[in-house]
Amino acid sequence: MFHQPLTLPSFDPDDGLGAFLGDLRSWVFRSKKEAARYFGVAHTTIMRYEQDQIRCPPSYIAALATLIWEHLANHQPIEAQQQLLRLLNVVFQHSGFKPLSTWTEVVDLASHYGKRPAPPNIRIQSPAQSAPYTVYDWGEAPDIQHFVGRSTELTQLTTWVTHDRCRVIAVLGLGGMGKTTLITTLAQMLKPDVTVIIWRSLNRPLSANEYLLDCLYRIEPNPPDAYPTDFQQRLNCFIMYLTRYRCLLILDNFESLLRSDYPAGQYHQQYREYAELLAAISQRRHQSCIIITSREKPVGFNHIQSDTTRILTLTGLAEHETQLLLQPYHLHGDEPSWQQLTTQYTGNPLTLKLVAQSIQALCAGDIAAFLLHQQPLVGDIRTILHQQLSRLSEHEQEVMYWLSIERQPTTIATLKANLVRSPWQHVLLETLESLVRRSLIEQHNAGFRLHSVILEYLNVCLIDQLVQEIRHQRPHLLIRHALLKADAITIIREQQRQAIIQPLIQHLLLIDGRDQTIRSLQALLATFHPRPMPEMGYAPGNILNLCLELQTDLQQFDFRFKPIWQVNLQDRAIATLDLTGCDLSQTHFIPSFGGLIALAQSPDGNLLASASVYGELLIWHTHQFKLCWSIPAHHDWVRALAFSPTGHHLASASDDGAIKIWNLPDGQCIQTLSDHIGRVLSITFDMTGQYVFSGGEDGDLRVWDWQDNRLIARVHAHDDWICSVALSHDGQTLASAGKDHRIHLWNSTNYQRQGTLDGHQGTVWSLVFSPNEPILISAGSDCTIHIWDYVHQRLTTTLLGHHDAVLTLCLSSDGAYLASGGADRHIRLWDMTSGNPHYTINAHHHWVRGLLFSHTTHDLISISSDRSLRVWEATSGRLRHQIQGHDGLIWNLVISPDDGYLMSCGEQQPVTIWNLREEPIRAYGLSNETQHCKAIAYTSHAHLLAIAKEQTIHLWHLQDKQPTMRLTDARGWVRAISFSPDGQFIAACGEDHTLYIWDRTTGHVTHSYRGHHGWVWSLAWSPDGRYLASGGDDHTIRIWRHDQATPLAILTGHTNSIWAITFSPDGQRIVSGCDDHTIRIWDITTQECQQIITNPEGQVWTVDWTHHGQWIATGGSSPNVYVWDATTGQQMQCLSGHVGRVRSVRFSHDGVYLFCGNGNATISVWHLPTGTKAQTLAINQPYAGLTITATTGLTAAQRNSLEWLGASTSSMPNEGNNHGSL
Length: 1222
What we know:
Keywords: Repeat, WD repeat. Helices cover 24% and strands 31% of the residues. The chain contains 26 helices and 68 strands.
């Protein structure tokens, strides 16, 4: 962990706390990620401490100090303690923290930070509200309504758990014997004796390591990175929790982990660690118990048997228990008849219930008559199931097969949607009632499901039948059933793939081989050509799913003019696929959108609105999350969305300073409200829908009559940004909060301030009122959630648990649960009654920006800057559905001095090198590790390419395409990099407000300049290498000498963030592009602005100057690129037709060509003498091989998205358009 000789650090208040923290941390850890792993927090948390973006807790500083002391303790322990204590008190005094008197206080304070063995990570300030800590997670445990018998077994199991304190218990028995019912009943009885119950079915197997993590989450809901990733370390942590809490763990259907071949009881390879898990629970000291149910004993179980391990083998019911079990079936018979019935079917409860239905239906419940006159149902459970299922009607069989495909409790609505092309849809309810009476399906809280024994049997029958249908070209089940549900939750879809698709293919390959199997699928697909589309049903989609699993060439198959239902093409690379004329209403594709930062749902819950960093507005139908429409709503980030109370209108607020009102039926903008100065960060409607409240960067609270486009009131509410406004559910109180750490309460009628709530130590990002109590909840950058009694204006509760800024909150409709998310990428669900965390989800790969509880389902919906919308099962935190957007934006372009190579980097493409001398032009992609890079730079002196990714710069040799060096000194994400003209130095700037210069031969920082008051977005070297210019969020351009720490000049005039700067070829002028819609040309000598050019269409994000000095090119938030005369400022050309926004433009060195990066992973190449597009270079467009001509079932927004991502509407798929040379 330590890598340098240590000297005690020093603190300079002028550098700020963040700079000191970076120094302190770097003496102990090589990187922020290493520190984050050690403390169990997100690495972005450490990064933001060091950038002064969030307030660092004193416990973190103390923790670093104790680690430094541990290293010094063998040398000068007393002196080190004294010096570190003095240093801490200097820092603490400057930061407003309570001073420390002794080293013991330092150690105690340090113990409160990060990954520590403590109770759930929460502090309740009001002890009266706290409750005993319990976790009862029943997973998929059945709802037991009718339990009979098994009193001896229950007594025995209860004794083993409560008196003998057994640690591992196995309940073994044949399928259908009632193991699940017995153990669920036992768990309900043992609730008073335990504090944690976690019930899991292994019908959906988890690896042992995944199971451990699942349990750790449920027992103590900490962030996932707070737990070890290594199995052994995670197991040790798990045993520690089993010692701290009295836990009852249940693993049902353990045989799912075991192989079906000889010898019995052998684990599948991927589940072998379960043997080690059971052994550790059995042999190590703790106070908990795990119970497994299985049809066979796992190998190795005998080796762990001891005083703490028991096995109960479950046999059949006794005759009197059979009578109790079958009471609901109203059977009658004498004692010998009951005894014969019980004996004949071995007392198996499932078998007896199946037979009881036949006795009732055929013999009016007379057991003796059934035994005398009917052919007995003999044999094992599979034989009996065959006999029973053969008696079912066609519509009953159809529903049974659908339940076997769904593989989980399924609602009537889902089954009805599945049967959309079935003639039996109208009798669905009667069919379900019949199957329940037959004891073939079980009714569950979440719907209907199959007993695991019946599910397995039906799965085998389904595969056998499908093999025959495919081989003999007689489709039936293939038409009526989807073998894989594209709209199923991720884990279910994967189970369908493993349990149905893969075994079906294996059977076909085993019988016919690969070539014949492909020919059979081709011939089967061809049989559908003369049929009307409705008659084809699910068959074409099933065949496509089989082809995708086989990874065969799809050009061999003619899918045109067919229904392609239940096919998921979101994670598939499509080489060539012609879907001309197809019905794609149930096909899932990758949508195109950027990072999502705003979320809202309509009052009826049928529509979901989201918005992105690119100003896109996206509206989804919540039923299948189909994209209704997507429009470029604003020129900048859309920060907030709000539906009107009627749901007929939607308001959007943006960083471009505008509020827009949208008409939802047609998606038309019907009003634009403009008065804010700077960003608009939050909006909400009043209860009538007539007025809109808004707050933003200027600190003013505004009230609008939006229909009349009239500003009703403007109140200067805060001394800094207003980040959130919220209206109480009675409409009487308006709350506002922001960067000044304060929450103000306002009368919503006269706009008079009613009070102020102080308590946060950082920006307050989110506010939400309780729907049924006088409670206001707030969250902010200090990682805390405050619960306020806003009537009496007092803080009642503080919830702790997040490790970074909390950005979003939402309450369930009944106010019982609170969900929170933020910069630590986690979602936490809190019980509002007890204040206890219910669970923590490692939800996204970037900040969680929005949360809401669905009005129509039991789901929690989240969005993130990682371009994803995710739907979670609110009760369990299980991922149900995910929409992952694709962002093809080209961030940066660089061209070699000889015009031989063009290099590009993008959001979802690896860094790509284009050989401009080859014909056709060829692209060479570096490894996928170079995706998500924001900046690149090239020097021909050593053929080096510098790549900035997050806070690290990677140097690559272009000749061998291998990385050579990593530069890790930056304390924030790097946004711009540049080589000095001689190639000796690399300059970088970014989110930590600092410029760095490295010597590229040694990798050491030679200089760092700190002067900007915000993020630094752009930099450029002068042609002679003497000067460096930088621009950023503080609206200034700073000119630096290479060897001086203070700027030579500060150029002011811009009124917003400066995104791009570059020097003129003679080094005498600088051109800058800004969010204020202007391009400015500056004279270096006089430090005056020579010329201001107003950009016709929005913000300017990229500029470049030709090497002959005559022209300047600019691009930005519009799809047009402009070429200007550098002397007169006159527009020379407007190059239109780009896709999306343009982040980068580059002239060729001879000035003949201009390269422009588009938003869809393409580069437009313009021939400037003629003003025409020479060609388009395309990079990894996911649907470049897809044809969607004349398709149905797609909304206009979906079609536009597919075309954006490369899909063709011509008769043949795109064949690429990067041919020809320059």
